[in-house]
Amino acid sequence: MALSFMRKESEATPEAMVFSDNFAAMDSLAEDLDGEIGADKWVEVSNTEADEVFDEIKRDQTFVILTLSSDDEGEVEACAELIRKASNAELLVLLVIGDVSPRTMHNVMRAGAVEFAPYPDPPGALQEAINRLRVARTQGGGALGSAKGKTQRSGKIVGVYGVAGGVGASTFAVNVAWELASIVRSEGRRVALFDFNFQYGSIATFLDVPRREAVYELVSEAGNLDQTGLMQALSSYRDRLHVLTAPRDALPLDIVAPSDIQNILALARDAFDYVVVDMPQALMGWSESVYSAADVFYALMETDMRSAQNMFRFIRSLKSEDLPLNKLQFVLNRAPGLTDLSGKARVKRLSESLGIEFAHMLPDGGKQVVNCCDQGAPLAEVARNNPLRREIAKVAQRAITLVTTTEASADSA
């Protein structure tokens, strides 16, 4: 990479000035900037040239891109100082970050950056951030000002809970989240999947996404978490689904307090339109926080005695805490087929003994389900015509209808 500030001679009004001293992925970033902005529309500048550059940049034509890929105290302070100088010059600043801690992100964002993009993951984040800066520039910075002052989304929480191990709750959560993301993608809405089983969560395996170091810092310092720290901890699946995986190491489930979970979910609501939360089987002090925040909550079970006993206990726990049951959707996984009359009779007796009605009865997807999980892909990507996938697609569509109806009822009330 041998660009310099002298590149201005060939382009009088570059769209972006890029400060990239010590940025680890600059070669890759340069290729992406060439594709997004244009090879002759951006200029790489050294940090020592900042004062000169900031005096010459025309605010209505050019914005500033600052890079940071280290938690080194000196580099963090240098980046923060550049942000302050750019802000004082009333320039729009995009911060491109590598693998840094949420604490570092918090420090540099407080210096005055108005936009940030994790790099290189998730794919598409850089493009989205640049587009937002372009809109803000054409509106005199008003768009960013309103974004900072008020949230633009009011996401819906979809909880998923398996009353016993092996009932397929994580598989259900993964596929519901993917179906939701596919349905609302054309509308510009965003979907996230959170794995709250901090010990042995399997979402990362089922979607073949990396477990980030930032996830541990997010969980251990959830009370001080902000929007930038949350986004830094997320992975991305096929540029469509944002994923919070379980940490790399098994952690105690009580590492977070109810207030921590409330903070995480509040930030998630601000950033996404739908957030699917995969819960651990163990009921913790913060489980009530997820249930209370959820707009719809799916409880999965099978037709065996173990599931029946655990579902009975789960319902009693909710009633003992005076929690509403109207958001609860009972789901029977591996339900008997149409011709299995004895199986259907067992389901009827089970429903009557528990005093519940199953909102969804999912068929057994067979070996294709196991293969998809092992391959790290949703059913829709590998086994689109699988009967379980078709039923989960209906669940996702109905979930959208449920939360929309609930919202409309609340507004009318």
From TrEMBL:
Lineage, highest ranks first: Bacteria, Pseudomonadati, Pseudomonadota, Alphaproteobacteria, Rhodobacterales
Keyword terms, alphabetized: ATP-binding, Nucleotide-binding
Name assigned to this protein: AAA family ATPase
GO biological process: negative regulation of cell division
Assigned GO CC terms: cytoplasmic side of plasma membrane; cytosol
GO molecular function: ATP binding; ATP hydrolysis activity
Gene source species: Thermohalobaculum xanthum
